[in-house]
Write a structure and sequence with these properties.
heterodimer, A: 149 residues, alpha+beta, 3-stranded antiparallel sheet, 6 helices, 27% strand, B: 85 residues, mainly alpha, 3 helices
């Protein structure tokens, strides 16, 4: 079997390893019915769960959107041999309504190792699916001293 | 096969009806039998069947990459014989 190609690491001018994910509403609805809210407490922080809550309980579409956003954000990190550190990639709703990604602990370490300072994400959903796309913000590379003079 | 490991295998097979069996050395991740969402559910199942608490943050992919690895890491004391349903 031929060896698989190796993707270059993120970083450098123009580089952006995008991440994208899609989550089935039916699948999440089944998990919620089967295990209840505690199941999602392993994936979402209390603040994220609060963002997904309405007066009638957890909004499944919002839940799916958060899950898709976390997965999409994780994909931008391009790490091997690691599972998604669910509680370390936090997707909160900003005052304007758009999602903001916070990287904590292991996710922050992985991002730093990939030269990523932040991740921006966009979420969309319709009846059956939620999708998210994420783009990393690459740390500016230091300018050689000869170019600064 | 130890009952707990058999339950794990059955759980995967239930979600992938296109498969009749899972070889002990089949890469469950590469073959997309476990993805990131089902991984959380899978950890729930492993905790139930192995009777141990699992920290997802410290779990290494290689610990659940194959049924043989799962046997080693979570059912080592149960004399499981992976690969025979």
């Amino acid at each position: 079997m031929p060896a698989r190609p190796v993707a270059p690491p993120a970083g450098g001018l123009g580089w952006a390893n995008l991440g994208m994910d899609i989550v089935s509403v039916n699948r999440v609805r089944r998990l919620l019915a089967e295990y209840g809210e505690p199941f999602f407490e392993r994936m979402l922080t209390p603040g994220e769960l609060a963002d997904c809550r309405t007066s009638t309980g957890l909004d499944v579409l919002s839940l799916c959107g958060r899950i898709a956003a976390k997965e999409a954000a994780f994909k931008t990190l391009r790490v091997r041999g690691r599972f998604l550190p669910w509680p370390d990639i936090v997707v909160r709703r900003s005052e304007g309504g758009w999602p903001l990604v916070e990287l904590h602990r292991s996710a922050a370490v992985m991002a730093a190792e990939s030269g990523i300072t932040e991740i921006t994400v966009s979420i969309s959903h319709d009846v059956d699916y939620a999708v998210a796309v994420a783009a990393p913000i690459i740390a500016p590379t230091s300018v050689p001293s000869s170019e600064t003079q | 096969m130890a009952d707990g490991l058999q339950q794990v295998k059955n759980w995967i097979l239930d979600r992938h009806p296109e498969r009749n069996d899972i070889a002990p050395d089949l890469d469950l991740i590469e073959n997309r039998l476990i993805d990131s969402l089902s991984f959380v559910e899978f950890v729930f199942l492993l905790e139930q069947q192995s009777g141990t608490s699992i920290q997802m943050e410290t779990l290494e992919v290689d610990e659940i990459r194959t049924l043989a690895a799962i046997e080693t890491h979570f059912f080592a004391g149960t004399r499981a014989e992976v690969g025979q349903a």
